[in-house]
Amino acid sequence: MEKAVKPSAKTQKNASERRWGMVIDLDRCTGCQACVVACHAENNVPVVGEREAASGRTMHWIRIERYWEGEYPNVKARFMPVLCQQCTQAPCEPVCPVFATYHTAEGLNAQIYNRCIGTRFCGSACPYKVRVFNWFRPEFPEPLGEQLNPDVSERSRGIIEKCSFCIQRLRRAELDASASGNPLADGAVQPACLQSCPSSALIFGDMNDPESHVSRLALSHRAFRLLDFLGTDPAVIYLKGGETNV
Amino acid sequence: MSEAGRLLAVFRESTATADAIDALHETGVQDDQIVVMTGVPYPERAFGRHVEWLRLPHIVLAGAAGGLIFGLFLAVITPHLYRLDIGGHPTVSFAPAAIITFVFTMMATIISTFLGVLWEMNFPEFGTKFYHRLVTDGYLAVLVEFEAPLENRVRLILETHGGEHIERPERQTL
Amino acid sequence: MSDQPEPSGGKPTPPESLEPSEQVRGRLLLDQRTDREIDEAVLRPMFETGPRFWILVGILGAIVAWGIYAWIYQIYWGMGVAGINRPVYWGLYIATFVFWVGISHAGTMISAVLRLLKADWRRPITRGAEAMTSFALMMAGLYPLIHLGRVWKFYWMIPYPNNRFMWPNFQSPLMWDMVAIFTYLIGSTLYLYLALIPDMAMARDHTDGWRYKLYRGMALGWRGTQGEWHKLHRALSIFSVVIIPVFLSVHSIVSWDFAVTIQPRWHSTIFAPYFVIGAVYSGLAALAAILVIVRRTMRLQEFLRSEHFDALGKLVMVAGMGWIYFWFSGFIVEWYGNDPVIRELIHEEISGGLAPFFWLQMTANVLPVLFLAFRRIRTNPAFLLALALLINVGMYTERALIVFGNLERNYLPFNWGTYRPTWVEVSVIAMTFAGFILLYTLFSRIVPYVPVWEIKEGRLRYSLRRIGRLLVPTAAEIE
C-alpha cells in the first residue's frame, strides 16, 4: 500500500491550487552547510558572532543538525537539515497576540516582520524550535553589507523570523509566469537552499500537482515527517538515509 | 406651608435612637424628613425605617449585558473583519471566544457596579451638607426636618431620649 | 450579656462570677475601647513616620530607579542584554510575572471569599490584603511590557479600530492574559477604594491641612447616612461575588500561556487548578509576612492579634496541602507515562542541573505545611514570618522551574539549551519587588491601614454570652 505522506490540503480553509512542499533526501545530505550559507545570503540573515552563537542565539533559518551514532572507531555522523516545517496545523500561529504569523492559501506559514512585537510566544510554541529572534539590531560587517538582497526586508531588533520557503522567489516566479502567460513549471522555483545544494538533497515543488517531483518522491517508502506524532502536519518530508535510523 | 426647621442631635446608643425616631414618627414627622448618619452601618429596620429600593442591581445587570455583547463582538466578529487563517484552528472557536466573552462581561460588571453605586449615592458631592463630626466617633446623628410649629415637641423628644448637642445644623463643607 | 436561665434539670448553679477565658478576653471584636480611641490608634501611624521610614523609602526608591535604568538600557540595546536565548525564549521575566499574579490572589481570597463566608477575623486585614493584590497586579502588568522585543508597539494588543483595520488575535493566550489581568486590576482597585470611602470620611474628620484636602477629595462627600451604607453594602456584596470568578480565571488564563502549547511538561491539563492553588498559597503566605512586618513597624499590635495570625496560618496550611496534592497529581502522571522527553526533563529537574532549585522548591513548600499545623508556631510572629518568606522563595523557584526549566529541553536534542540571567534581568526584577514594597509602604501611611468601620461593625455584632460555665463570644447576624 502506498503511503501518501503529504500535508493535507483539506485542512486549509482557502486552499488555492498550489500547495508548496519540500522533500529532503537524507541519503544525499553531506552536511556541507552550503544551504545554511545560501539562506543567510538570500534572506539578509545576520551573522551573530562567536559570543552570541555560544549563548545559543544563532540565527540560521535552516540548520544542519548533526547527531553522532556509535562508539569509536565505528562512529557515524548523521545530518539533518531542519528548517521551518511550514506546518498545516502550526502550533505557532494561534498563539501570536497580534496576528504576526498566519497561514497563506498556498500552505505557507507566513511571518509578518513589521507586525511582530516580539513576545516570542511562537518561538516557545514551535516544537522544532526553528523560529529565531533578533536579540540585537542585526549588523552586517563589511563587506556583507554590499550583498544584501533588495527583495527581502531587513528586520529590526525585537522581531522573530524564520524560513519562508524563499517567498520572494515564489512571488517573482509567479509574476513572471503570469506575465509571460506560461504556467509555472515544476522546478522553476528554487529556494536558495536548494539552489546551492551540491548533492541535490533538497527538492521543492507543488504537492497538489501529482506529476511534480516532490509529489512523486513523497510516495517513497523512505518518506517520513519530523515529529509526526505531534500532529503538526508539516509540509517538509524527509527521506530516510540508506543505513541510518534517522 | 409653614417654614421648615431643622434640628440635629447625636445619640450614643442605637435603642435610644430607635425610640426617638419612633416618637418622631408618632409626632407626624415623615420618614423621608429624617436622616440618620452613623459611623457604623446599621440596618434600616433597626430604627424602624423604610428600606430604600435600589437601582444598583439593574445597573449592574445592564452593564453585564453590555460587556457580554462587547466581548462577543470582539471574540466572534473581529476575526472575520480582517480574516487571517490560523493553522489548525477555525477563525472563531468556542473556547477562546468563551474566555474573552466571560472576561469582558466581568469587566463590565465590575465597572458598572462601581459607577452605578457612585451615581446612586450622588457622589462625588463636595458641596456643603448637614453633618456632625462626632458621627465618625461612634455617635448616631439624627437630622430632623419639620414644620416650624413642631419645633418644641421635636426638641423635647430628642432630649428625653438622650440626644446631645441638639442644635440647628449649619451647612458645612465636608 | 444575656442571663438566660439554664435548662439544667433542677440543680442549682453556684453563684460564681463568670470571667471570660484569656483567649476570649484577647479578642479584638470584644474590646471595650471607644470608637474615638480606635480612630486615633489607627490614625497615629499615619502621622508618626520616623527617620527609619524615610530611609527605607529612599533605599527602595534607589532600587526602583536603578531598575528603570536597566529597563531603558534593555529597550535601547535590545532584548539580547537579557540572558534568554533559543530555545529558552522565556526566562525570569515571565516567571516573575506569574509569581506576581500569584501573589495577587490572596487579597481577593481574604476580602471577598471571607466576607461572603462571614468570617469576622478578616476584618482588620481586608484593606492590607486588597492593597497587596492591587500593587502586585500593577507589578505583574509591567512584565508583558518588559519582555516585549518591540515594546513601543505594545498598543497593537489593544483592540481599537485602526487604519490597518487589524484586530488582535483573541485566540492567543496572551490576549486573554491582557484582558484578564486588566479586569482583575480594575476590580481589586475599585474594591479597595469602595471599602475605603467610610474610612476616608473618618480621616477627613480628624485631620487638617493637606491631609484634610486629600481625604476630603477621596471621601467624595460621605456622611454615613443609611442610604449610603445600604448602597455601599450592596455594592461590596456584588463585588465580592463577581471578583471570585475573576480571580479564579486570571491565574487559569496565565497558566494556559504554557498549557496550550505542545511543549513537553507544559501541555498539562492540571496547570489551571495547580497554578490557582499555588497562587493562593504564595499569596496568603506573602500576606502573612506583610502583616507580621506591618504589625511591628506600625505598632498595630492592638488590631492584629494572635487570633488573626492563627486563622491565616491555618488557611496557608490548607492551601499548601492543596498545592502538594496538585503538584503530585501532575507529577505522577508525567513520570509514569515515560515519554522520553518528559523523562529527560524530570531527570534534569530532580537529579540534573536544576536539582538544587527543585529540592529548594520542595523543601520550602512542604516543610512549612508541617510546621503550620501547630498553633504555637502560627501565632509566633517570628516563626510565621520565616515560614512565609520560605514559602515565597519556594513558590518563586517553582514558577521559575516551570517557565524556563521546561524550555531547556525539547523533542530535538540538538536544540537543548541552558539559561543564565544577566544583571539586567536581576535589576528589573528587583525593581518590581522594590516598587511593590515602596507602593505598599507609602499606601500604609497615607491611608488608614486597618479598616476601622469594619472593625466597628464587627464589634457591634459581637457580644459575650453565657453557656454553662463559659462566657463565649457570639456574633449577631445584623446584616
Which strand order do you get reading across the main beta sheet of chain C?
1-2
Count every beta strand of chain C, where a strand is a DSSP E run of 2 or more residues.
2
Let me know the average pLDDT of chain C: 91
Mean residue pLDDT of chain A: 89
> In what order do the strands lie side by side in the largest sheet of chain A?
8-1-10-9
| Number of β-strand runs of chain A | 10
Helix residue percentage of chain C = 55-70%
Return the domain count of chain C: 1
Greatest interface = B-C, 63 and 61 residues
Mind summarizing the main beta sheet of chain A? 4 strands, mixed
Order of helices and strands of chain A: EHHEEEEHEEHHEHEE
Discrete helix count of chain A: 6
Characterization of the model:
The complex is a heterotrimer of chains A (246), B (174) and C (479). Chain A is of the alpha+beta class and 246 residues long. Helix content of chain A is 18%, strand content 17%. Chain A has six helices and ten strands. In chain A, a hairpin with a 6-residue loop joins strand 2 (63-69) and strand 3 (76-82). Chain B folds into two domains: 4-47 and 128-173, Alpha-Beta Plaits, CATH 3.30.70; 56-120, no CATH class. Chain B has helices at residues 14-27, 56-81, 94-120, 151-160; strands at 4-11, 34-38, 128-130, 140-147, 164-167, 171-173. Chain C has 17 helices and two strands. Chain C has one domain: Formate dehydrogenase/DMSO reductase fold (Up-down Bundle). Chains in contact: A-B, A-C, B-C. At the A-C interface, strand 2, helix 3 and strand 6 of A face helix 7 of C.
